[in-house]
Design goal:
The complex is a heterotrimer of chains A (about 300), B (about 350) and C (about 270).
Chain A: H1 19-44, E1 48-49, E2 55-56, H2 62-68, E3 69-70, E4 80-81, H3 83-115, H4 119-134, H5 137-148, H6 153-160, H7 174-199, H8 203-210, H9 215-243, H10 247-252, H11 260-268, H12 275-304
Antiparallel strand pairs in A: 1-2, 3-4
Helix pairs in contact in A: 1-12, 2-12, 3-7, 3-9, 4-7, 5-7, 7-9, 8-9, 9-12, 11-12
Chain B: H1 2-17, E1 23-30, H2 36-46, E2 48-55, H3 58-69, E3 75-76, H4 80-89, E4 122-135, H5 147-150, E5 160-162, H6 166-177, H7 186-200, E6 203-206, H8 211-217, E7 222-226, H9 227-235, E8 240-243, E9 249-258, H10 265-275, H11 278-288, H12 303-307, E10 320-321, H13 328-342
Chain C: H1 3-8, H2 13-34, H3 51-58, H4 62-95, H5 103-115, H6 118-132, H7 138-162, H8 167-174, H9 179-208, H10 211-216, H11 224-232, H12 238-272
Helix pairs in contact in C: 2-12, 3-4, 3-12, 4-7, 4-9, 4-11, 5-7, 7-9, 8-9, 9-12
The chains are: A mainly alpha (about 300), B alpha/beta (about 350), C mainly alpha (about 270).
Chain lengths: ~300, ~350, ~270
């Protein structure tokens, strides 16, 4: 059943004469409604902000300047590097890394455990992991918010069993955002790792065991390198959406400290109303993601050769 | 088979969309600011299908209108200073003399307002004050000072929610420092910036639409809030007291304005006229718990509203002030301070 | 106990798997339970009742929820249909179209909506629509959803197609069937589980979207996520929990459907091979 079996793997060219017509609709739709908009957004990031919203079609580096430099309250001081926005990006990156690590810590053992079940129960376990992925992200975030409120069910339970004396204050903290990101994207980590563990040939483990390697050594030295592509794929699937997340910071973080997603949103839907700056911040986020994806493609190519 | 079912469902969706009520009205409103029953009443009376979208600050409403929703809405409900800004930007349509039959119901003092002399573009909706409420279980000391927000006592630090509303937060900060709004004095502006930066350390969250909820749930012990919204939080069981500080507080009036390029202008006029009827606006007042500026609404108001502590400034409190509109150069500095505060 | 099992088995992994499921399901189950709470307060338990479910359908906000549900489902159905058709064509072109120059670029373009962070797509689309003067409304949401649903529909369809032995089509070609007939009578019956899986995934992705919809929805148009978001900003109310529970059950029904179709597809393929 795997993609590599049978003659399906050899490139079939039955439809190659009409290939162009088959591919054209997707090229046109995505090209016109996404690629062109992204290029337009790039243009916008170099335009001038109009007072009280809107843009003027004049070239300006003001948005990137605002991102990088502080020229004082009145804009007439010598520029010094401004950490405000850089820190928002660093904070978002750290949060995304944190979410990825937490997802990996829980996701790897889970994926491994499921992949080593007998076929019948494996599908049930897998089904259980897949269901939350299909449940609306907003609803899941709201559920998390409900659960961890100061007077929410989690605190009540912990108070009841006497684990804590006073309610834990989690909501509206960075930890709550971290928790929300972890919770949102956990299934993304499990599924790719599962797919690669499933393909792992356990005779390697047996051979290693016959050579008196400990189980930890087998896991670390034999299994991990083989399933690395799955781990990298899962990490990317968690890291990238975490980086630009909006719902978790907004609903769980109290929107006091911005994350990249809420910073951008504020430029368009919120108080700030600075489109060119929002476009510039989006461009910087997009570049970051592209760098990560390039790293991923390179890592994959290296694995294949 | 499945595909056929889906296709027919989709086709049905297209047909059904065109089979709605004859007239339409699109309202851009503050959140939780109009009782659903009243919308229903208007809708039934005039056979108009009303949709209400909500915003949570004057500034975000303006941003959204300028971002391409202008021409989709018929009426909006900006605050006083925002009406002035919108007039300046040419976003508002003019109501011709005689178009509103109930225009004479507007109370004298709200007729010739500085932000819209002679009410050419707007009608009064609600007016009230902006200050803060304090949870009395958390703090029993003196709350008649803006120090509670900007220089809080130890036990309130980290438990303060502040409205995500540039105009009002900056005006409150100016009152706290005793400096004029739209100040151009560099030292005053620097101290304003420094005040907000240091106060932010003690704030837990920014939020307007969450302002009531955080007080009711106890997530915040102090909440900058509008008087009526504070009264509603108290009605929902929060043991809170609304403050009229010594330094003063912000007064505002929200107004229904007629937007340019309104797709359903006639229905917008009907709606405004509807809201000028004492009984209808009283329904808003009873729900939102502020005050309206319409003659003859008093008999329809809940009795306890007039006597509620949120509606009666403390004797000896500071004066209430409206938010001022600054010129571009000054406003850009204020925007800069706000950006620094929020990011 | 045989030795392979022992080698595979790591102590503690079972507990972590259970923990993982508790984390994934805990919040959802709690909300489900509280949606049956009779109390107006979300904190206190006031006995079991269905009042919030009744409220969704008859209460003051019912008109808003109904309109939002209508928008959500009609947009999701249409976006899923269009994107599935486009993705099916693209999958055949990519996987049965032989090797060609720019194959990688074509793949990158088709996957672009997945690679670009959602918030960036939202910003770019808003700027684009506002620049060309495209009026924001249901249509703008539909267009944007169709675009980002294409790769989600493409993935299961192309995966399925890759697993199908090309000899069936080659045999059909040898029997002088034209390309359309080859697709319609040979390829389509084998690949339909992939197409349905792609359709369902696109459907749920469209139904799920909040960020992009929030940016480009026009006046007076709400989808279920934007309506729920607007509502929870002022505090989580019991009726929202009831609404969430209904959506949750709907999602579970869809996954189950998708799962069984996948099963059936596998069985089909196995008998054919």
């Amino acid at each position: 059943m795997a993609a590599g079996t049978g003659s399906g793997s050899t490139v079939s060219a039955i439809f190659s004469p009409v290939r162009l017509w088959l591919l054209l609709p997707s090229w046109i739709v995505i090209g016109f409604f996404l690629l062109v908009p992204v290029l337009l957004m790039l243009t916008y990031s170099f335009l001038t902000k109009e007072f009280r919203g809107g843009v003027i079609w004049e070239f300006s580096l003001a948005s990137y300047d605002q991102f990088l430099f502080d020229r004082g309250l009145f804009g007439d001081e010598a520029p010094v590097v401004k950490w405000t926005y850089i820190n928002i990006f660093i904070r978002s990156i750290l949060q995304a890394i944190g979410a990825t690590i937490f997802c990996l810590l829980i996701g790897f053992p889970t994926a491994y455990f499921i992949a080593t079940r007998p076929i019948q129960s494996r599908t049930i376990w897998l089904f259980l992991i897949t269901v939350p992925y299909w449940v609306n992200l907003l609803i899941r975030t709201v559920s998390m918010k409900f659960l961890i409120r100061d007077s929410g069910p989690l605190n009540e339970l912990l108070l009841y069993i006497g684990l804590i004396d006073a309610p834990l204050h989690v909501i509206n903290t960075n930890f709550a955002v971290q928790l929300g990101l972890f919770y949102s994207y956990l299934p993304f980590m499990v599924l790719p790792i599962y797919a690669s563990v499933e393909r792992y040939n356990f005779t390697f483990s047996e051979v290693a065991s016959d050579l008196y390697a400990s189980k930890v050594t087998i896991l670390w030295e034999v299994i991990l390198p083989v399933v690395k592509p799955g781990i990298i794929a899962g990490s990317i699937l968690v890291f990238v959406p975490s980086l630009g997340a909006f719902l978790a910071p907004d609903l769980l973080g109290g929107a006091k400290t911005f994350m990249i997603g809420s910073l951008i949103e504020d430029q368009f839907k919120g108080n700030a109303g600075n489109w060119p700056f929002g476009a510039a911040a989006s461009m910087i986020l997009l570049s970051l993601v592209l760098v990560v994806l390039m790293f991923y493609v390179r890592a994959q190519n290296k694995d294949q050769t | 088979m499945i595909i056929k079912t889906f296709l027919s469902a989709a086709a049905l969706a297209l047909v059904a969309n065109s089979a709605l009520a004859e007239g339409k009205l699109s309202v851009y409103h503050w959140f939780e600011y109009i009782p659903a029953e009243l919308v229903e009443k208007f809708s039934t009376k005039y056979d108009v299908d009303v949709t209400v979208d909500t915003f949570d600050s004057n500034e975000s409403m303006l941003a959204s209108l300028k971002a391409g929703t202008m021409g989709s809405y018929d009426v909006a409900v900006p605050g006083d200073y925002m009406v002035e800004i919108m007039v300046g930007l040419g976003l508002l349509d003019t109501i011709a003399a005689g178009e509103l039959t109930n225009i004479n119901n507007i109370e004298e003092q709200w007729l010739n307002v500085p932000f819209d002399m002679g009410r050419k573009h707007s009608i009064p909706y609600q007016w009230g004050s902006t200050s803060f409420s304090v949870n009395r279980d958390a703090y029993s000391g003196n709350i008649n000072t803006t120090d509670i927000i900007f220089n809080p006592p130890e036990q309130l630090k980290g438990k303060i929610n502040v409205l995500d509303s540039q105009g009002e937060v900056m005006a409150m900060a100016a009152l706290h420092l005793g400096i004029p709004q739209c100040s151009t004095d560099r030292d005053q502006l620097k101290s304003l910036d420094a005040l907000l930066q240091s106060a932010k350390e003690n704030w837990a969250s920014f939020g307007s639409d969450t302002a009531k909820e955080v007080l009711v749930s106890g997530d915040a012990a102090v909440g900058m809030i509008w008087n009526g919204y504070g009264a509603r939080a108290r009605a929902e069981g929060a043991n809170i007291e609304y403050s009229y500080p010594d330094q003063g507080y912000v007064v505002w009036m929200d107004n229904v304005v007629l937007l340019n390029e309104a797709p359903n202008r006639a229905n917008a006029i009907l709606f405004m006229d509807f809201l000028l009827e004492p009984e209808n606006i009283a329904a808003v007042t009873n729900y939102a718990m502020y005050a309206d500026g319409i003659k003859g609404s008093t008999p329809f108001l809940d009795a306890e509203l007039a006597s509620s502590p949120e509606h009666n400034p403390r004797a000896g409190s500071g004066a209430g002030v409206f938010v001022s509109v600054c010129d571009q150069a000054t406003q850009e500095v204020y925007d800069q301070i706000w950006t620094r505060l929020r990011s | 106990m045989d030795r392979t099992f022992d080698i595979k088995h790591y102590r503690g992994f079972f507990s972590i798997t259970c923990l993982c499921l508790v984390i994934l399901y805990g919040p959802l189950i709690i909300v489900m339970i509280y949606s049956f709470n009779d109390s107006v307060s979300i904190t206190n338990w006031g006995g079991i009742s269905l009042r919030w479910y009744v409220e969704i359908f008859t209460g003051l906000e019912s008109a808003k929820f109904k309109a939002a549900a209508w928008n959500s489902f009609s947009i999701a159905i249409m976006a899923a249909i269009v994107s599935t058709v486009i993705a099916t064509a693209a999958a055949i072109g990519m996987i049965r179209g032989g090797n060609f120059k720019g194959k990688f670029a074509s793949f990158a373009l088709i996957s672009l909506p997945i690679m670009v962070p959602e918030i960036v797509t939202a910003v770019a689309t808003l700027i684009f629509f506002s620049t060309i003067g495209f009026k924001l409304g249901t249509l703008s949401i539909l267009v944007a959803h169709t675009v980002f649903c294409i790769p989600f529909a493409y993935l299961p369809i192309s995966a399925r197609l890759q697993g199908i032995d090309a000899s069936y089509e080659e045999a059909a070609q040898d029997l002088f069937a034209n390309r359309w007939k080859t697709f319609r009578y040979v390829l389509m019956p084998i690949m339909w589980p992939g197409i349905v899986a792609g359709f369902l995934l696109a459907f749920i992705i469209s139904l799920d979207d909040f960020i992009i919809t929030n940016f480009i929805k026009g006046a007076g148009i709400e989808t279920l996520p934007t309506a729920i978001f607007g509502s929870v900003k002022q505090g989580i109310k019991p009726n929202i929990m009831a609404l969430s529970t209904l959506l949750l059950l709907f999602s579970i029904a869809l996954v189950t459907l998708s799962y069984f179709i996948g099963k059936r597809g596998e069985a089909n393929q196995n008998t054919q091979q």
